[in-house]
Amino acid sequence: MSLDGLPPLRDVIERHGLQAKKSLGQNFLLDLNLTGKIARSAGDLTACTVIEVGPGPGGLTRALLMNGAARVVAIERDERCLEALAEVSAHYPGRLEVIPGDALKTDFAALVPSGPVKIVANLPYNIGTELLIRWLTVADWPPFYASMTLMFQREVAQRIVAKPGSDAYGRLGVLAGWRTDARIVFDVPPQAFTPPPKVTSSVVQLIPRENPLPADVRTLGRITEAAFGQRRKMLRQSLKGIEGARLLEATGIDGTRRAETLDIAEFVALANAV
Questions:
Q1: CA angle 204, 151, 74 (to 5 degrees)
Q2: 228-263: per-residue pLDDT in tens?
Q3: Considering only CA atoms, which of 192, 179, 83, 96 is closest in space to residue 138?
Q4: Cβ burial, residue 228 (10 Å; 0-12/13-18/19+)
Q5: CB environment 37-55: b (16+ within 10 A), e (fewer)
Q6: What's the rounded Cα separation, in Å, for the pair 121 and 165?
């Protein structure tokens, strides 16, 4: 038996034939000490509903429940994992709800009608960035979640926390920095996973800012997409398709600058000038 009285994850994977699928972006975390560290880094979970995406055989799910999460709602697309997760559910009666389905088609805000929500997940690599952008650009702010503690490939994590002027700074850094306080909590080596990915992973924590600079979220998205879509070009070129000359004049931003030199306040000013 393992730390929580359930069978070790390697046994669970073998018994249910759960080899990770590359097509689903799966890399399973088997070390319960490590999953426990992720769960603890999300803070006090005792009064929270935790939303988890891509629980797989349930390594992180077990850690969240073991660390006191009042309730875990887990969205899993891979039907092969549902039996293993049902065993976890039986071990923690009434505390785990598994929703079979595609996270990209899920209305997350509707999952938890009341009470504090935290999102904690070892996100499938192939949809991680897209999910994060959706969570960062929800219409209502402050959002439905109190925090997000998420695992990404280290390169993506660095883009999330990047500051103006750095090579990693781009659309993701602007959106994350605009609406949240984002930091890398710790790195996870490839050998912690089955199968081991080719790169190091990082756990990132994002805490929503109560009062981000006011801007229309869609417009800001369009501006950052255009500006960083051709990041080596001057702004007067990259913003040409969206009245760039007028926006630059209205904001007093020099059109010969490149996107990575603008701070978040300047991007917000451009969006508001639209």
A1: 120
A2: 998 889 999 999 988 888 999 999 999 999 999 999
A3: 179
A4: buried
A5: bbbeebbebeebbbbbbbb
A6: 30
CA distance 92 to 19: 25
pLDDT category at 19 given cuts 50, 70, 90 is: confident
Helix/strand/coil (H/E/C) assignment for every residue in the chain: CCCCCCCCHHHHHHHHCCCCCHHHCCCEECCHHHHHHHHHHCCCCCCCEEEEECCCCCHHHHHHHHCCCCEEEEEECCHHHHHHHHHHHHHCCCCEEEEECCHHHCCHHHHCCCCCEEEEEECCCCCHHHHHHHHHCCCCCCCCCCEEEEEEEHHHHHHHHCCCCCCCCCHHHHHHHHHEEEEEEEEECHHHEECCCCCCEEEEEEEECCCCCCCCHHHHHHHHHHHHHCCCCEHHHHCHHHCHHHHHHHHCCCCCCEHHHCCHHHHHHHHHHC
Give the CB-side neighbour count of residue 6, counting CA atoms within 13 A.
Answer: 25
